[in-house]
Every structure is written in C-alpha cells, then in structure tokens.
Write a structure and sequence with these properties.
With 109 residues, the chain is of the alpha+beta class. Helix content is 39%, strand content 18%.
C-alpha cells in the first residue's frame, strides 16, 4: 500500500498505525502531498515498480489500483511504458493490468 497523506487519509492511517503499533508495521509507504496528484503518481511510478516489479520479486505485480487519480493521457502513457495494457476506470480512480510476460520485462529508464 502506498498512501499520500491528505485530510482524508491522515486519520485513517493514524488509526491503522494504532492497530499495527507502529508506522513501520502498516505495510505501506507514506508521502506528503508536495505536488499535484498526477505529477506525484508519475514521480513515484519508478519507485513503486522498483519495489513490486521484476527487479525485486520473482512474481512482479500485474494489477495496479489507483485511488484518487483519474486515468489521464499522461498516466495511461506512463503505464503503457510499464507494460500495462488494460485499464478500467472506477468510481474513485482506475485499475491497470498487464500480462505476466509484460510484468516480467525490463522497465523503462
């Protein structure tokens, strides 16, 4: 789980930390909102992929659910570069999926 702190997310994450006893046990990375949502997503996409892609695991992620950001043309193009080919918009964002073959390929950059 990757979370951007916001007025909505902050109390939820604090409650989860109380249950987990410490932020390090919450199972996610926390980011402060310094820039807009689209730019922030694009900036962190390499980091997310580094942690969940073929460089870090034998079973890289094939599904990416994004909450709080619409599927813009720039986001779609960035995800296409990472092998995501199927997209479905949700009420709160979108879900991108790729094949196992695409998930295992070397990444851009």
């Amino acid at each position: 789980m990757w979370v951007v702190m916001s007025p909505v997310n902050d109390p939820v994450m604090r409650a989860l930390w109380k249950i987990a006893a410490a932020p390090s046990n919450s199972g996610g990375m926390i980011f402060k909102p310094e820039i807009g949502a689209e730019d922030r997503f694009l900036c962190y996409l390499d980091t997310i992929d580094l942690h969940h892609g073929p460089q870090s695991t034998e079973t890289p992620y094939m599904v990416l659910e994004v909450i709080g950001l619409p599927l813009t043309a720039n986001v779609r193009q960035a995800l296409l570069d990472y092998g995501f080919r199927d997209f479905s918009e949700t009420e709160s964002g979108f879900i991108g999926t790729c094949s196992a073959e695409e998930a295992s390929r070397d990444r851009p950059g």
